[in-house]
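Second attempt. The first submission of Sigma-54-dependent transcriptional regulator had a stray character pasted in from the spreadsheet, which I only caught after the job came back as garbage. Lesson logged: always re-copy from the clean sequence file. Corrected sequence (485 aa) follows.
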Amino acid sequence: MMTLKKLNDGDHRTFSLIARAAFANPFSPEREALDRRIAAVEGDVGRDELFAMVAVRAKEALSKLGIPDLRHYGGEDRELLRHAYLFDVYHRYREEFDGFIRRQIAAGDVPCRSLFAREVLSDLTSVGFENAEALRYLAIFYQIRRAFYFIDGTLAGLCPSMQTLRRHLWDNIFTSDIRRYEKLLWNRMEDFSTLLLGETGTGKGAAAAAIGRSGFIPYNANKGCFAESFTRNFIHLNLSQYPETLIESELFGHRKGAFTGAIGDYAGAFSRCPPHGTIFLDEIGDLSLPVQTKLLQVLQDRVFYPVGSHEQQRFNGRVIAATNRPLETMRRDGRFRDDFYYRLCSDILVMPPLRQRLAEDPGELEAMVRVILLRMLGGQGEELVDFVCSTLVDSVGPIYHWPGNVRELEQAIRRILVTGHYQGEAGAITSFSDPHLLDAVDKGTLGAQQLLAGYCQMLYRRHGTIEAVARCTGLDRRTVKKHLG
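This time the job returned cleanly.
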C-alpha cells in the first residue's frame, strides 16, 4: 500500500489561501484581500498586476513539490493541491483563452478549433485528474475567462454601484459559491431565470449579453473544439418591436399555413436556442397576458408548440428578461401575472442610472467617456477624453440629470465629435437637494438657467403642483413647465 505524502504547515497555509482565492469572486473585496496576503504586498497595486503576482506565487509553491501527483496525497491535502493546480493551469493558459475568445468573436457562429485545449487536458490528467474531470474543468476555465472578459470589458465604471453590479453578475453566472457550482450546478443553470430592472439606457442589454455569452459550453475532444460558439448561444429578442399578431411566431415559430402570410415553416427563438444557450426577452413588460401565460408554460414545463402545430418541442436554455416598467404596479393592477413574475425572478439585478453613478463618484464621467471613445474609435481617442469631458461640463453642467443614461451619453459624445457641443434635454436637472447641486452652488459653477430649473423642481416635489411653484417663484405657468421638463 502506497504511503501518502503530507503537506507541511507552511505549505498547508499557503495552499489554503490560494484555494480560497481561486473560489472567490474576482470583483469582490474578499478576493483582493486574499490576493494581497498571498502576494505579500501593500500599497497601490493594480488588479491585473496583483492577479499576476498571485499566479506566480501559486506556481512557486507548486514547484517546491516538484510535479505533484494528486494520487500521492489524501484528504484535505489532496483537495488543497487540486484547487491550487487548477488555479495554476487556468492562469498558465489565460492569454490563450483570451485570444481564443477574440478569434471566436471574429469567426461568429461557427466554433473555432482550440489547439491549446489538448495541452490543458494533458496538464490536468498528468497529475491525476480523470478524463471526464479534465474535460469539465477545461470548459469551466473557458467559461470563467468569458465571464471575466465580458463583465469587465463591457460594463465599465469605477463607482460603488457598478462594482456591486459586476460582483452580482459573476454570482449570477457561477452562484455565490463556485465550488457548489462546479460540483452540482454547472449543467443545471437553465432552471435559474434572471430579471433585469432599470431605466432605459442603463445597460440591461450589455448585462444580459455578459451572462448569456458566459454560459457553460462543453468541449468536444473528437472535433477539437467547443460544442457551440458563444456568439450563437445568446439570442436577443426585443419584444416591443413586434405587433401582438406576430409575437407568438417570433417566440415559438410557426408552421406553413398557420396564418395569412405564413408561406413556410419558421423557427422561433425558443427553437433556435441551443441546449447551452440563453434567450434574452427585452421589454418583457410589454407582453399581453395571453402571451405571458404561454411563456409561463415554457418556464414551468420546458415545452412549447409552434403556432399552427400540435408537435411539442423542448426548450433547454436559460431565460433572461428585462424591463424598464414598474412591475410591482403592473402586478397590482393585474397587467403582469404574479406566477409569471415568480418564474422569472430566480435572481434580480437592478441597473444603476447614470445620475446615481455620477453622484457616487464624479470621476465616473471621465471613466465612461474614455471607455466609450476607445470602443467607438477602435482603441484610439485617448487624446480626446479631456476635450469631451470639458465640453460636456460646459454644455450641460455638472448636475445634468442624464434621463437617457449611458445611451444618451454615447450619443452626446458622438454629437460633440461632430458639432463640438451638446445641448441636452431642457429641464433635465438633478434634484435641488442633491449634494452635487449644492456643491455647485457653493462653488459658483451653476448657470442661471440650471439654478432656476433645479429650484423649480425642488419646489414641485415639495408642493406637488405647477401653480404652487409659480406662486413661490413669481414665474408664469408656462415658464415653470419649461423648467420642469
